[in-house]
Amino acid sequence: MKELLILSVDDDGRINSGRKNLIRVLKSFAGKKIILTIERKFNKRSTLQNAYLHGVVFAMIRERLLELGHEQARSKSWVKQAMKEAFLKDSIVIEATGEVLDGVRDTSSLTTSEMMDFIADMQQWAIEALDLYIPDPNEQTEIFN
To answer: What pTM was computed for the model?
Structure first.
C-alpha cells in the first residue's frame, strides 16, 4: 500500500495542515516497517504553459528550421527532443569512476518556473541562432491585411 499526503509545515517545522491524515496513515501501518520519503512540493508546469510550448514555441522553431532546409524538423518529436537536449540536460557523476552519465529531463517534470526558464532559453536561442522572434504568451500579435 502506498499513500500520498500533502502537508503544510510552518517556519518552525510544525505541521499546519494534514496532521490528522498523517496520523491516520501511520496508524494503518502499525506494527509494520515503512519507508517514509519527504520532498518539497512544487507546482508542476501548467496546462496553459504546455499548450504554449507545443502550439507556439516548438511549432515556430519547427517551421523556421524547415524554412532553413533542416528536414529533420519535419518530425515534431525531433524538434522537441532537440530542444530538450539543448536546454534540459541533466548529468550525474559516478564518484568511484569519475564517469559522467548524461540524460535529459522530461518537460512533464518541470515546475512552472523551470518551464518559464526553458521557454526563455529557447526564445533567446531562436533570436540568436534562427533570427526568429517567439512572442511571450501574453503578447498579442496583430495581423495586417
So the answer is: 0.66
